[in-house]
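Handout, section 4.2: multi-component inputs.
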Amino acid sequence: MKPQIDKDILDLIEQQPDITNKEIAHTLSLPENMIKDLLEELSDTRQKILIVDDELDALTALKIALEAENYNVVEAADGLSAIEKVKSEKPDIVLLDLMMPEIDGIEVCKRLKSDSQHKHVPIIMLTAKGEINDKIEGIEIGADDYVTKPFNLNELKARIKMVLRRSQD
Amino acid sequence: MFAKQIRWNPYIIVVVVAAIFVIGTVVFLGIRSNSEVKDVVEQQFTSQQMLLSKQISRGIEEFLNEKVLLIEIMAKQESQVPPDHFASNFKTIYEESSGFYAIQFINESGTVVSGYPEDNLPLGYNLYKNNQSWAFEKVQKDKKTYITGGVQMFEGDLGSFTWVPVFHEGEFKGAILSIIKVSDVTGRFLESYAPQGHVYLVDKYGMILYDSSYKLQIGGKYFDLVNESNLQQINTFQEQINGTEGNGKYFETSEDGTSEERIVTYSLIKWHNQKWSVGITNPVSDVDSLIRSVYIIQGVFIGVSGIFIFVGSMWVILFLVKWNKTLEKKVASKTREIKQSNELLQSANIKLKEHNQLKTEFVSIVSHELRTPLTAMKTSAEFLKDDNCDSSVRLEMLDLIIRNIDRQTRMVSDLLDISRIESGKIKFNPEITNLYSIVKLSVKNVDSLSKEKGVSIDVNLPEDLPHIKTDKDKLIQVFVNLLNNALKFTPKGGNVEISSVESDHIIEVRIKDTGIGIAPGLLDRIFDKFYQIDSTSTRKVGGSGLGLAITKGIIEGQGGSIRVESTQGKGCVFIFTLVK
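Output:
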């Protein structure tokens, strides 16, 4: 639905470059606030990071730190919503925690990498030592990189940059 | 049934075969020695009979020869024929030497001229006239004594005639004829033969002179009297009349058709030109009857030996069977023991593996639980270090750090508790306390959460509850844990109720909530450490996953028990007991 709404908004602006948010809301029968948010989102040129972690505090801390680095951060608390978010938000990169209830990080990674639409989305696995046997296993399931918890923030940021640059090349 | 019990093991077969062999050997040796004994006894019997025949024949021989010698002496003694023609001598001899039937003198003309006793004399009887002179002529010619065989006498009796010639200065004067009745001889020597068996007397021509069995007619020829087809008897008899002495066996068929084997022994009587033979026969069955007692003793011996061997071998078999059974039982019980200890070892091994698995899982969970707050803290702290951020963001980060420090502290403290409980090193400091005040303290402790969640706590305890001896701090911990749990899982507007039931030795405390409840299948597991029905929801409410395990450890460590009852969707009741 969302991509369709985005497309409709863009079509309206193209036809009438002076159109206001209110007029668009009226035309599409949607609340004006939503149109405003959508427009902001559409004009956001920041790179989008999806953080997937079932630990709320860990997720919050990382979100604040990455937003300070001027990333657009979206979050998911479990595997299923992570897959949904990848489809709707089209993040540039996914930071994926390994140990999660129901669908764990490995399964999320496998599903995304087997989906032709989303397999190009780079994934950095966040794992604790002992949770995964070695880096090779993490990479074999399709993860682009791999950071051990508790991680060094600067190192994580550097890896994010590196992975993003590599995926843009 | 017995046969079923015996398993025919090879050694039992060996014992049976050995027993049969030994019994067979004893029987064989017994029978063999029996036939040897029979032979020996028969030989003894035969030689005894032989001895008897010889004795009898010797007696007859001496008697007859003595008679002849008397007559011969008399014939040669006188210088010439006495005027009474030996009549007085005859009388003396006749009377002194019994056994003569008659003695008479026949003169050279062949006429009986004298003799004694006169009753038995045909005085004046002339031999030539009666054509009876051949023996008279023979002694005159041969000049020596001659004895005729059994001759039918006038009296119808068998008699033996002894002719002794009388010569005077080479001139034939006549002959002395002495007659001995055969019946006199046999009456004197044979009829007194008392032992069982038969005795008979024959001369060299096979004429029967006597037969104690009266089967053979006296004066008859033997060969005419016996059955011609009985070759064995005829041959034996032939040997008897041709030989001197010996023995033999033959079958004799009696009138009623039964056949009987007899032993015969015979001995010769030599009397000048005459040869007689005495035979004694006895049935072989007499020998058998003699050795029957030996047979009986031997039979008894064989039987007893057989019984002994049989009983002995049965005993050996029974012993072996018993021994075998004992061995089998021993083996079976040892096998059972080994199997049991094997099973014990296997189950112990499985338990150890499970234990190890649980330990690995525990370490993995613990490390995750410890690392998670660390990750949040580290990220926040590093961010605060590098970034110059707003004070609101800074405050949020610092709150997050403190929250996680608390969480980790709680976790470490819970881990220490559970470790003490599991290793049995938990220490209780019991003191006399008032349960009511403990509940009040605990409720106060969770007051903020209660308000925050909008869940009320009702305390329905009687104020006169007895004092109990317990570890106060740990009991508060139990109440706080359970109340926290109840509050966490009860939605806004619900309530938690604390009540108690007192009985003789215990106080039962119930903490009831109106929360989400627990599925029936999971009731047993909620006291396991780190067991979380839904970890997402648990995290939502925050918890180490050790609270109930610690609670259970504290209650049970002080002699109480804890259980939970629940209706899913309608809440649950935690019920624990305290010892008064």
